[in-house]
Amino acid sequence: MSLAERMKILKDKEEQWKNKGKGAANDSIQFTVAGRMAKRGLVSDTGKEESPLITLKKSNATPVKPHEEISSRTDVKVEGDKRLDKLESFLDKLHNKGVSKSKTSTIEVTAETEKEVMTLDDEETFGNFYKTVSPTTLLDSSVVLTEEDLSQIQPNTPKLTSAVAEHKRAVRPTRRNQGSRNPLRALAARNDIRQVYTEQRLNIATVEAKRIQVERMAKHSRANLADVALAGLASKENFRKVSLRSVKSTEVVTNNSALPFNKLMLIRIKGRRHVQVRLMEPTARSLNSGDCFLLITPKHCYMWSGEFANVIEKAKASEMASFVQAKRDLGCKASQVTVLEEGINTDSRWAKEFWSLLGGQTQYRGAGEPEEDELYESGVLDSNGVYRLQGDKLVPHEDAWASIPSVSLLNSKEVLVFDFGSEVYVWHGKDVPLGDRKVAVKLGKQLYSGSYDYSSCRVNPLDASCTNKDVPLQGEGRPSWTLFGRLSEHNETALFREKFLDWAERKKEEAAQAEEVKSPVHSAERSPFELELQPCDAKALLDNEPEPVKTVLEGVNVHRGHGLVRADDGRQAELATVAVDAWHIKEHGEEELPEESLGQLHEGDAYIIRWKYSITTLVGKRQKPGELSAGAPGRERIACFFWQGRHSSISEKGTSALMTVELGSHRGSQVLVSEGKEHPCFLQLFQGGLVIHKGSREDKNTAVWRLFCVRGEAEVEASLVEVDCQRASLRSRASLVLLNAQKSRLYLWHGCKAHPGARQVAKRAADKVTQRCPSELGLSSSSSLKVEEVEEGAEPEEFTKALGPQDKKAYDCMLQDPGKYNYTPRLFRLSASSGVFEGEEQLYQARVTEGVMAMPFLQENLYSAQQPALFLLDNRMEVYLWQGWQPDDTQCTGSAKIRWNNERKCAMETVLQYCKEKNPRRPPLAYLVLAGCEPLTFTNIFPYWEKDASVASKAPKSKVMLVKEALSKLSKQQYSIEELTRKPLPEGVDPLRLEDYLSDQDFKTLLEMSRVEFNALPNWKQKNLKKSKGLF
Q1: pLDDT at position 47, please?
Q2: Which of 497, 519, 493, 499 is nearest to 508 (CA)?
Q3: Which residues form the HP domain (predicted)?
């Protein structure tokens, strides 16, 4: 074979290879959107309906930039932003109250009054000063000369000649001076002399008092607060005029009339290079098979993917949906993202809700041409408009018109208005004055509600799908589903941020150390639980030593509210109570309680207890350094506790919190105290006389017999809590008080396992009742109670009748139990909310370091936690794992269910390891307890227990089972084909990895290949194969 022939053969092979590569079998073509559409026969050269957007490439229209400026019009009434108006009103009030430095630190004239000067009469003045002489007296005292008198002159006396007189006159200068006048008369005749003067009063005393108060607050403050903050704290407010709103609603409550989101929003994600995220009309006709959509409401976040949506659109939709759900953006408080795919599970509950929100399932467009995405990207930018606020006008931004916005446009000192057609935003920087913000909002609303013209744009942003003929290219006023919102710097929504070209780079620069948002939407390529949660260290839980009780008031740890403490300067001091006052908080005011009602609280009310105390520094004696003597008495301090009953209303809780500041006279500490979580320093205020009644103070308790359980670890901290008067309320490890006010009878009942310390506390509580005889218990000062102590198992007949028929199974009676119950139960919260599974010990607020605390925990410790929750309860003889319930307002499907099962598995493994660490030779048994199905042995660890019907109805009808058995069931690794294809799936099964639970034989039978062959397939092929076999 010649060389030429060989060259020809090589060229022929090369051409054959090229032709083969250009065919439909080429992977680079057949797995694209165009390839998939070609396989379905949706792309052909003839007989094809042209997409409305395909005409974009034929259009050469250039968008016209408006040159006119937008200024305020008097003929158009536009509502302002209520939130900005309220902020301006608040700042004016704050300024008028003297928070600014010019008002608080400058000495000014506060009052001016005119004072008149007393005018004196000249005649009267002269008459009083000079003595008056009568004419007769002058005549009597005058001298009369006679000739004899002249003869007395001596002849040698020199004579005064006229020459001498003339000489003297010549020497003396001539003066023509006016004779002296009366000075008082001259002064009175002047017109420039005022007979009144102005008296001025200054604010020196007020300024000095405020300065001293601010210095005192700054001295006791741990942080360096600004002058404005200190002045605001020092100001006095009338909190009685404050009206509270209900917080039960899940909707966003705000005064901002320009919220940057709507209650129902359909967001379209379309594009290939820079994906466009735009608001659409929330109807089914806005959908199409070639794009992704997000449907967002206050309670739901749906991600709907069209069959032919490209991977870039799906990735952007998933990223945005997860961000909205995790950050509660756009007013969405959904518990998870619900993913829907076109044509898959169309009969599910979530799909029906999705179509219902869109007004019902109707016909919508199919997928457009493959090049439609890029044409849409460039075409929709023509409608972008950006305005800048200059003075009181909106001026078009030359460089940002009809283009993708850049974050370089945003300036902290500027206001910009972005017009994206279906969305209009007023954005202002953090340094923009309040007046400019109000002007911008007014002009922005004027732009939004005015006329629009998109005739020169290639895409109409109000009807990008070209499905609604009622929306013209130009008109007056935009549709109701469009959005007008106000945004501030660093508070932008995801829908706004996605409009920018380089926002992601800005976020990376600003938050390089920020934690990556964790999405509940999981990709198909990697399971979110490849890194399984690990059980926590059980030994660390056992070895944890709780710290002593610590209550810090005004920088001083008051411990249990009495005795020796460390003063703020580190020296030893003695704490003493000066006075205790209490107020009952009503819905519209408060009522001070009389002294005899001090300590009588109700679980349906809220109270303010004001504690006045002093801390006196102790000094050592020179002769005997070991002995201490009291120094100068310390200053009087105040602490206000606002106690809230577990059934008190929201308005009462809010009023008590506001009244605490008012009653505290802006001094001292304010402490929130919830029922059952009282601090020792609070309990000791009543010296064992605290009684918590059922109901509210206004209710009349007509019960003949009333039962109270005794709580407290010290005699001065004793308290009585009213419980249901029935045998089920008895506890063998506690003491209770049974009272009949009509018969003046009081029974002090002790359980058979009650330790001596608890008995002494109960006696102190009973003694306080007999001493005070409070009217809330139906007693009076003339009542004479007869106290009788009763032991469990030896109750008198009257006691038995009061509690109902004798039934030892009504409570966990320990009369036949030989064990010594001289231990304290321990409670741990198990959770993986931080990303790592860990346990946290729940501590009793009134705990003691030494001694036995028989019942330190309450039912509220379990039921008030965010559900579903997991708790480990160590009762020494046995260990319980308490499992909460799934709330009605959350959806436990998909990834959330997998996460919950993983947490349960870790909790069970932790409990079993805890038991082994507790007693390696004979580990205590561990039981799984479900909320609503708690047995007596569990509920009797708590001082009282109330059954919740709503929780019990959700609990499965199952008995208590061992944790070991529950873990074995949850960790089952193999199921049959029927079990994995039946709904619902078995407990603990990961729906993303159903093939892993098949045996090798079932795997080969169902999927018609081995595991090795299956794992070699690409992810998308694996998913399609599992869908076809029902494993999805």
Answers
A1: 40
A2: 497
A3: 969-1032
On the 0-12 / 13-18 / 19+ scale of CB atoms within 10 A, 917 is middle
* Phi/psi-derived region of residue 744, left when phi > 0, alpha when psi is between -120 and 50, beta in every other case: left
Contact 571, 617 (CB under 8 A): yes
Q: How many C-beta atoms surround the C-beta of residue 752 within 10 A?
A: 16
Q: Tokens in use for 956?
A: 């499965």
As a whole number of angstroms, the distance between CA 418 and CA 400 comes to: 10
Helix axes 895-918, 963-970, angle to 10 degrees: 140
Taking the C-alpha atoms of residue 34 and residue 54, their distance in angstroms, rounded to an integer, is: 15
CB-based contacts of 332: which residues, under 8 Å, 6+ apart?
A: 296, 297, 298, 299, 300, 301, 324, 325
Q: Could you identify the residue written with the tokens 């601090």?
A: 679
Say which residue, 205 or 156, is predicted with more confidence.
205
How many CA atoms lie less than 13 Å away from 553 in the CB half-sphere? Answer: 27
**Strand ranges inside 332-450, DSSP E:** 338-341, 385-390, 393-396, 415-419, 423-428
Tokens matching residue 953 = 């109805």
Which of 299, 292, 302 minimizes the C-alpha distance to 339? 302
Reference 891, options 355, 354, 335, 519; nearest CA is 335
β-bridge partners, 591: 584
The Cα 681–Cα 575 span in angstroms is 11
Token pair recorded at residue 527: 């399971």
Q: Which two tokens stand for residue 440?
A: 């911008």
CA angle 65, 68, 70 (to 5 degrees): 115
Distance of CA 659 to the CA centre of its chain: 21
For the chain, percent helix, then strand, then coil, each to nearest 5? 35, 20, 45
* Contact yes or no for 199/115 (Cβ under 8 A): yes
pLDDT tens string 390-426: 988 999 988 888 889 999 999 999 999 999 999 999 9
**Tell me, what's the pLDDT at 526?**
37
Q: Catalogue the long-range contacts made by 1012-1019 (C-beta closer than 8 Å, 24 or more residues apart).
A: 1019/524, 1019/525
Q: Mind listing the pLDDT tens digit for each residue in 167-204?
A: 555 555 555 666 666 776 777 677 766 677 777 777 78
Please report which residue ranges of 456-551 form alpha helices under DSSP H: 494-497, 503-510, 538-543
Reduce the DSSP state of residue 396 to 3 states and report it: strand
Identify the residue with better confidence: 246 or 127. 127
Query: Using CA atoms, how far apart are residues 483 and 549, in angstroms rounded to an integer?
Result: 54
Q: How far apart are CA 370 and CA 31, in angstroms?
A: 13
Q: Is the dihedral of CA 440, 441, 444, 446 positive or negative?
A: negative
Assess contact for 418 and 442: CB atoms under 8 A.
no
> Model-level pTM?
0.54
Is the Cβ–Cβ distance between 782 and 742 less than 8 Å? no
**Nearest CA among 825, 962, 809, 784 for reference residue 881:** 962
The answer to whether the CB of 524 falls within 8 A of the CB of 900 is no
| Per-residue model confidence as pLDDT tens digits over 752-763 | 999 999 999 999
CA distance 366 to 465: 11
Look up residue 180 and give its amino acid: S
CA distance 659 to 584: 11
Secondary element (H or E) of residue 801: helix 797-802
Alpha helices, DSSP H, located in 49-182 = 82-96, 101-104, 122-129, 135-141, 147-150, 162-171
Report all structural domains of the chain as residue ranges with CATH numbers, in order of start. 265-375 (3.40.20.10), 380-466+473-508 (3.40.20.10), 548-686 (3.40.20.10), 688-822 (3.40.20.10), 826-971 (3.40.20.10), 977-1029 (1.10.950.10)
